[in-house]
Every structure is written in C-alpha cells, then in structure tokens.
Amino acid sequence: MIRMISAGESHGKGLNVIIDGFPAGLTIDVDFINAELKRRQQGYGRGKRMQIEADEVEILSGVRNGKTIGSPISLWIKNRDYANWQGRMNVGKLEVDNPVTAPRPGHADLAGIQKYALDDVRNVLERASARETAARVAAGAILKLFLTEFGIELSSRTISIGNIEMTEKSRSAEDTEKSPLRCADPEQEKAMMKLIDEAIEKGDTLGGVSEIRAGGLCPGLGSYAQWDTRLDTKIAAAMMSIPSVKGVTIGERDISKKPGSMAQDEIFYNDKDGFIRSSNYAGGIEGGMTNGNDIVVNIEVKPLPSLRSPLKSADIRTGEAVDAQKERADVCVVPAAGVVAEAMLALTLANALTEKFGSDTIEDIKANYKQYTERVCKTSS
Ligand SMILES: Cc1cc2nc3c(=O)[nH]c(=O)nc-3n(C[C@H](O)[C@H](O)[C@H](O)COP(=O)(O)O)c2cc1C
Fold first, then answer.
1. What pLDDT, on a 0 to 100 scale, did the predictor assign at position 379?
2. Model pTM?
3. Spatial distance between the Cα atoms of 347 and 88, rounded to a whole number of angstroms
4. Less CB within 10 Å around the terminal CB: N or C of the chain?
5. For residue 369, what is the domain's CATH number?
6. Which residue positions in the chain have pLDDT lower than 70?
C-alpha cells in the first residue's frame, strides 16, 4: 500500500511529507512537482500569502540518480514566511507569547483546544490550516508521474462559485487551465470573479464546486465484493479528507432526479473498440470498479471560515462575547481545492493500480498491466 503522511505547521519551519510503499524505477521530475505546487497557490480570490510564498520542493530521500529506489520518499517544503513567525512558533521558549483565544466558527479551533486541553487556539489552527495541503500536492505530483506511465491523466476545473454556475463549456482544456478560476466558461467566470470582488469588499468568503477528472483508465480497478474494497468508497473518503469539502458526487450530479431509463450508460459493441458506452452518467465507476470511462468527481467546497468581518465567538478563558480571530486568509479556494483533489485522487488510483498489478518496480507493474489489459481487450473483441 502506498501511504502518505505529513507533518508541519502553517507558520512553522515548513512541511514534511513521506510517501511510503512507492515502487522503484520511476523518473522524478522536480520541475513538475514545483509546477503542481504553483497550481495550488493560484486562483482568483487567494490571500496575500500566495504572493509572498512561492512553494518549492526539496527531495530528502527515496530518490537517487533521478529515480525512485523503493525506499520511503521524503519531501520538504520550506515556509518562506517563517522568519516573520519564528518568535511565535519557536520549538523552544516563545519570544512572543500572544495566545489566540477567540475560536473561529467553522474551523477546528474550539473542538481542537477542548480535545487536547490547550489554552492557545494557535496550537490547533497551525496544523488544521489547509497549508498542509501543499504537502499533499507535492506527494500527489509524484503519484501523478506514476499514473502517467500507464496513460492515466488527471485534471480539474471550476464548475461554480457561490450561486454562479458554468453553463457554456467553450474553452479548451488548455485555456481553462490558464484562466483565473480554471473555468471553461469565460462569461460565467467573469460573473464569478465579480462575486469574489464583492465578497472581498464585504470581508466575506465564498465556496463552490470543482470537478476532477481522471482519464485513460482500464476497467476493473477496485472491487464490488466488500464495502471497503469499492473504489467509490475510497474516492469519497479521499475527497472528504480535504479541509472545507462537504460533499462528493461521482458522475452526473443530478442523477437522483432522473428516471432510471435516463440515468444509466447503455452498452454497445463494435469490432474496433470492443464494449463502449455513449454516455458517462456513472462517472467511470460501476459496482465500485472503474468501467474504462473517465472518472468524474465533483466536490462541494464550503465558504471559508476565516472572515475579515468576523463572526461572533466566545473567549476560551472567560466565555466573554468577542469577535472571532482574524487570520490572513483566502476568500475563495475552489480552484486550489480542485488541485488538492487531483492529488488525493492520484493517491487513490495509484493504490488501486498497485493493489492489482504489484508495487515493487515500475517494470513489473507494467508487465502485469500489459497482460491484464491485453486479456480485457481480448474479451472485448
Ligand atoms: C486550498 C485550501 C485553502 C484554504 N484556505 C483557507 C483560509 O485561508 N482560511 C480559512 O478559514 N479556511 C481555509 N480553508 C478551509 C479550512 O482549512 C477548513 O474549513 C478548516 O480546516 C475546517 O475544516 P472543515 O471545513 O473541513 O470542517 C482552505 C481550504 C483549502 C482546501
């Protein structure tokens, strides 16, 4: 099993992520990892911090002569702003002891201090912060490089911000990627940006929906046999692990409103392609397994809890009514959440693939994959 585990605080020295159980023999492209980190930092509505800090990865272990060697891969992303926080984030005695005592509604703050008997909300918010998702994206880049070896490509785009939804999908994938909100509809994107400007003006925040896709999959990853072997179980869990994600759908978002006759993907056959479907309501998964179509996942991102015009809170020492803590924060992170979701989907698919085809070396996995796909193609034609 490929496992990913991270450590690090939002304003500490940096983030550390370990990928364990990763196959040997994959060529690592550091520029690609950094490009993925940059994608996570972009998107209209991000906070000032994204302008201060351009994330860059350093590989500490598990890669030699440009290739993975089967050992745990350890990555390090420095927090460039640490110099300004050292006094407050020291591992030793703090030089500036300025405890946060006004927990933010909607964040981990209050339940976190109650759970760990803490008297400074900063001890919670530093780790609960979505800064941690930079670690996931760095690891996810390596998992994406692995999936590319099997022709599997991932992408994401913004479907809605607040109550404004994309209608026309007129932009190419390339232009969508370059657009301010990574949205395929230029007109609706303008309206979304206006909504974000209004939220900035009011000191408010916005949520939305991002769609994540994976293409180039063979049928049969995952299993229908047990609740916890279904691939959709794993995808949903991976998506729900992203801070601020409150809902996940796979396939057609409005499927529950359709009659059964209009909600399934009819099966056809021809000699050239074998078994095919002319639609993809299922979003690439039937019975907990890939069916060979693109996996299509939508995530619902809630409006962010750190508000410049703060909500009501109560002081953790006195219970006195106060304004919630103000942190330097984003206004809208839907495009960034899409990039994090790509990383989480990459981890889930890399695990499904290695579970089925082995996990020691890229060459062994490829040989098993070739044998399987040839057999599946044979039964199709
Ligand atoms: C990429 C990304 C950036 C985020 N940035 C912020 C932020 O600047 N301010 C904030 O309050 N929440 C932000 N969040 C969301 C919080 O981390 C999240 O709401 C919080 O940890 C509580 O978790 P929950 O919403 O899943 O319950 C961000 C989420 C993501 C995915």
1. 60
2. 0.97
3. 34
4. N
5. 3.60.150.10
6. 49, 51-52, 379-381
| pLDDT, the chain, mean | 96
H-run or E-run covering 314: strand 312-314
Residue 137: CB within 6 Å of ligand 1?
no
Pocket test for ligand 1, best of 39, 46, 129, 339 (most atoms within 8 A of CB): 129
- Name which of 149, 152, 173 is nearest 290 in CA terms: 152
Q: Is 304 in the pocket of ligand 1 (CB under 6 A)?
A: yes
Residues 6+ apart with CB under 8 A from 14: 8, 76, 77, 78, 79, 82
The string of DSSP codes covering 39-77 is: HHH-STT--THHHH----EEEEESEETTEE-SSPEEEEE
**By alpha-carbon position, which residue is closest to atom 17 of ligand 1?**
130
Output the pLDDT for position 156: 98
pLDDT at site 381:
44
- The Cα 305–Cα 235 span in angstroms is 25
**How many folded domains does the chain comprise?**
1
User: Per residue in 249-280, is it b (16+ CB within 10 Å) or e — as a string?
Assistant: bbbbbebeeeeeeebebeeeeeeeeeeebeee
Integer Cα distance of 267 and 275 in angstroms: 7
User: Which range marks the domain in which residue 212 is found?
Assistant: 3-380
CB contact at 8 A, 290 and 218: yes
Residue 228 C-alpha to ligand 1 middle, in angstroms?
A: 27
Q: Is the CB of 340 under 6 A from ligand 1?
A: yes
217-271: pLDDT as tens digits:
999 999 999 999 999 999 999 999 999 999 999 999 999 999 999 999 999 999 8
Q: What tens digit of pLDDT does each residue of 148-192 get?
A: 999 999 999 999 999 999 998 889 999 999 999 999 999 999 999
- 163 CA to middle of ligand 1, Å? 19
